[in-house]
């Protein structure tokens, strides 16, 4: 005779949730080149948070301490023009995309404000967790650092190649 064990259901749901998150992470450009087994260490380094529609994630000028990966929902990035004092949306970030990556390199003031355009779940990678990964799992840290360098280089190149709006 088989007994019903509610923990089996909980464990199965937990396992499915972990597998879904790992599947999501393998498609993030920042983690490209990290093996399946190593991805579990990346997942353990991430903190999950949900923001409600309209909620501010961070404000321009705040000290950056984490990178944000959008799992679900949508985020707007806006900047306040110091001359005109007008706020402009400069980008929208969708699931699978990330923002705030400069915080992994330096704890400097944020260059934009980020807020949820709809209920949004994000994974956060704090600078301190990234540094811990670099020391504890150098292969993972090196892959993330190399990917970060490529991504920042591509973004800088795109910005430099954009025609000026004079």
Radius of gyration, in angstroms, nearest whole number: 18 Å
Low-confidence stretches: none
SSE series: HHEEEEEEEEHH
- The quaternary state of the protein chains shown equals single chain
Features:
globular, 166 residues, alpha+beta
Give an overview in words:
The chain is of the alpha+beta class and 166 residues long. Helix 3 (127-136) packs across helix 4. Helices cover 39% and strands 25% of the residues. It has helices at residues 6-25, 36-45, 127-136, 138-161, and strands at residues 47-51, 56-58, 66-72, 75-80, 87-93, 98-99, 113-116, 120-126. It has a single domain (33-161), classed as Sandwich (Jelly Rolls), CATH 2.60.120.10.
Write the layout of secondary structure elements.
Blueprint: H1 6-25, H2 36-45, E1 47-51, E2 56-58, E3 66-72, E4 75-80, E5 87-93, E6 98-99, E7 113-116, E8 120-126, H3 127-136, H4 138-161
Antiparallel strand pairs: 1-8, 2-7, 3-6, 3-8, 4-5, 4-7
In short:
By secondary structure, the protein is α+β, with helices and mostly antiparallel strands.
